[in-house]
Amino acid sequence: MDSQNMKNIPGSDTISTFTLENGATVLNFSNLNSHSIYMIGILNGGGGLDPSEKTGLAHFTANLLSRGTKNISFSDFHSQLESIGANLVFSCGSQHAWFRGKALAEDVELLFRLTSDSLQYPSFSQEYIERLRNQLIAGLTIRDQDTSEMASLLLDQHLFPDHPYGQPIDGYTETIQSITRSDIIQFHNHVYSPADMIIVIAGAVDEQEIRDLSEKYFSTWKIDAAIQPINKLIPLPPANIIRKHKFIEGKSQVDLLMGCFSPVRTSPDYMPVFIGNNILGQFGLMGRIGKVVRSKSGLAYYASSSVSAWSDVGTWEFSAGVNPENVEKAIDLIRKEMKRFVKSPVTDQELDNSKSHLIGRMPMSLESNAGLANAILTMQRFKLGFDYYQKYIGQIKSITVKHILTAAQRYLHPDRLVITSAGPGEDIK
Amino acid sequence: MNSLANKHILENGLTILTKEIHHAPLISHWIWYRVGSRNEIAGKTGISHWVEHMQFKGTPKYPINILDAAISKVGGYWNAMTHLDWTTYYETLPADKVSIAIDLEIDRMANSVFDQKETELERTVIISEREGNENEPMFRLSEATRSAAFNQHPYSQQVIGEMQDLRMISRDNLYDHYQQYYTPGNAVLAIAGDFKTEDLINELTLKYADIPVRGGSSQINVTPENRIDIGDQITVEGPGDTVYVQISYRAPKATSDDFFALIVLDSLLTGPTSLSMFGGGSISNKTSRLYQKLVENDLSVNISGGLQATIDPFLYDILAITSPDKDAQLIIKSITEEIDRIQNNSVSQAEIDRAIKQAKALFAYGSESITNQAFWMGYSSMFADYTWFDAFIDNLEKITKNRILSAAQKYLNPNHRIIGIYRPSHKENG
Question: How far apart are CA A426 and CA B349, in angstroms?
Fold first, then answer.
């Protein structure tokens, strides 16, 4: 990559950061090329904190934050946003509650005001709890018919047995039905706190404006909730092949998933596995896996692999959508590719191609305000350092075929996988 | 918005649209062909989409997987889409690597191989794609509703094609389709990003001008269908525990003045949506009339609207999702009543102003992406002209209460629509 392509990469010289007295961290990247701003934030309140009998509580709570506050009704909340073409959404992952907002730059204050009000003073009205409960349950009935979602749910259950990550963030119909207003208020009071909150804003606003707005809208939020990290130990990796299938009536195609653990985000093995995965199931039309399963065998419309990494665990997943008759054939082909991948080093050509691809696509991932804000959040969340993306190219270039082979052998065991599928065919329990 | 587009037409008929944007070191290169499911006949449905797949199977110069590696290696991404009126291929990549995209697209406009073995492999891939679609209740409902909404017009068919046609289409059928439609005169090249227009035009002219004109006429004889003959209600049954209610009205073609009135109407009824298929963000719809009427009254859990810019009149769809214990007929009645209110002059200027502000915001969000800007230039050329995009906001701002009233009365007629209901097998509803 030449120096021209380095422009617009956020670093310590272009990211402004400050911490409020209550612990909230605010980061800003001024991008005056755009007319809009993008805000993203995380704080304590992820699905990993759900009690097992109330699975879905964190998700329910986060979704209620945009259903009105003690100061503003549901209708006024959305009227103010929609009338100016802005958007503000609250959601929930395993580890955090999230918020994401977008507005024209001139309307940035509205996003701060509504976010602050929603996080601190949600009304949790019974009317909207019941309405949302119906919507969530409708979503779960759709999920139960979705072959991809059900294969994924099965994979999580068997990769993380007896661990919150094995439970679906959106819960089950029976747990959603059992959640009361009191559960929600209690969860919010005990868990939501500014102390660990990170807010990132990228777009056409300057540092001083963001600093003033942060002080105005978030400094009054006092810490009265204890941070509750997810303490439960990550289960051991699968000791053999665990095969599960969920029959879903009336479907034409099977969604197939195969998974195991991968390195955490800060592990030295992360980058070799990330690049190795690109060779295995991403590069071009889905790497080696796509070539074998789709291009050479015509077995699937899609076949690929992906790596996800967090602070306490990572997962490596292989997926394909196949005709019911071809499921076992696809599993065999993918496992053969895994075996080849952990037995012999990738070629120098493959590595050069993937390195070049990952370096070349960086400007695209940082093109929009959303891309910039997400990159800054990743650096802050995983404590990677604000020079992470500026050193990214060097990091990628430093990875060798041996690094990839060694890391792959540590994590990828073709005879120790969870293999799940959903669609036509009898249940495998 | 950035600078306006420049237009050049080469002697072989290829139209080139360029737009300089310098906020990131990227170029997005899109080649659009005026061929989609609108150009298909019975027995050959899905052929345009299949040809799109075959375009990734190589040429003598760039054999299969070489094409792929060439783009991916420089960090670019590429893909293709087939729709009702068009097929498009795009690459977004570092600005100094744009020649790769140019060389690939020039080569596969004329030299794709259509190997017999690759054709058969792709047959099963496409059948697999269709089977994936069939897993979705909304696909099944859309397929049935669209089929009922047209008599003869090819818009009645899904782009993926009928399963029996996918089993029968031959390599030669595909190659003939390719030869007929993949010619410079039937194509538009839209390119946006970090370049100097004069230098780029020189390079494009030098390279694209050599592609020979070939094939027969790409003009087709399709009779547009206007009003849906009679109101009809169809039911699709299938697995699941969710009910989907879709109401489809005939929509005006994109070049009709009424199209912009319908965009505002859609925004009032179901909330603003971007016409872009490629980014641009979204705005929630919780203050829209039908969200208030249906979701806030617990009749449905979701409501959305769908309008597409097309050459011929297509459909405006309203979709509600609900549970089997709710009354689907009451949902239909409520939608009809709300439309009736609009037809009886209940629209305020403030509502119109809000819809326009929302559209402007969606445009601002979309303009952050170079890929999206190149998309819009080519996309609007498929059903109108590239200036359609530049004039989009101006045309929306011209919408008046009277035009909305008139469009609602003309297009949202309860006697000329198709109602489709997907209901779980063995569940009573409505």
Answer: 58
Q: Find, in chain A, the residue whose alpha carbon is nearest to that of B351.
A: A83
Considering only the beta carbons, identify the residue of A78, A284, A368 that sits closest to B68. Answer: A284
CATH of domain A242-423: 3.30.830.10
State whether B295 and A131 contact (CB < 8 Å).
yes
CATH 3.30.830.10 range(s) for chain A read 3-218, 242-423
A200: β partners: A27, A40
Q: Decide if the complex's ipTM is over 0.90.
A: no
Residue contact B301–A322, C-beta within 8 A: no
Q: Can you give A307-346 as a three-state secondary structure string?
A: EEECCCCEEEEEEEEECHHHHHHHHHHHHHHHHHHHHCCC
Q: pLDDT tens digits for A114-134?
A: 999 999 999 999 999 999 999
Give per-residue pLDDT as tens, A364-392: 888 889 999 999 999 999 999 999 999 99
Contacts of B274 in chain A (CB under 8 A): none
How many CB pairs (< 8 A) connect A and B?
203
Which CATH architecture best describes the domain A3-218? 2-Layer Sandwich (3.30)
At the topology level of CATH, where does B232-424 sit? Cytochrome Bc1 Complex; Chain A, domain 1 (3.30.830)
Local confidence band at A65 (pLDDT 50, 70, 90 cut-offs)? very high
Chain A closest-CA separation from residue B70 CA (Å): 9
CB–CB of A2 and B96 under 8 A? yes
CATH number of B6-208: 3.30.830.10
Q: Is A1 on the interface with B (CB under 8 A)?
A: yes
Q: How many Å apart are CA A277 and CA A263, to the nearest integer?
A: 12
Q: Which two tokens stand for residue A427?
A: 């249940």
* Contact state of B287 with A78 under an 8 Å Cβ cutoff: yes
**Is residue A7 within 8 angstroms of chain B, CB to CB?**
yes
User: CA torsion, points B401, B406, B407, B413, in degrees to nearest 10?
Assistant: 130
H or E element that contains B129: helix B116-134
| CB < 8 Å to A131, chain B | 295-296, 298
From the list A193, A80, A188, A190, the residue with the least C-alpha distance to A124 is: A188
Candidates B94, B272, B286; nearest CB to A78: B286
- What DSSP element (H or E) covers A165? none
pLDDT one-digit tens code per residue, A131-177: 999 999 999 999 999 999 999 999 999 999 999 999 999 999 999 99
DSSP letters, A267-293, are: STTHHHHHHHHHHHHTHHHHHHHHIII
Q: What is the DSSP letter of B159?
A: T
C-beta atoms of A138 and B321 within 8 A: yes
Q: Which of A72, A17, A19, A394 is nearest to A219 (CA)?
A: A19
Q: What is the dihedral of CA A74, A80, A86, A88, to 10 degrees?
A: -30
CA B106 – CA B208 distance, rounded (Å): 6
**Residue B428, min C-alpha distance to chain A (Å):** 17
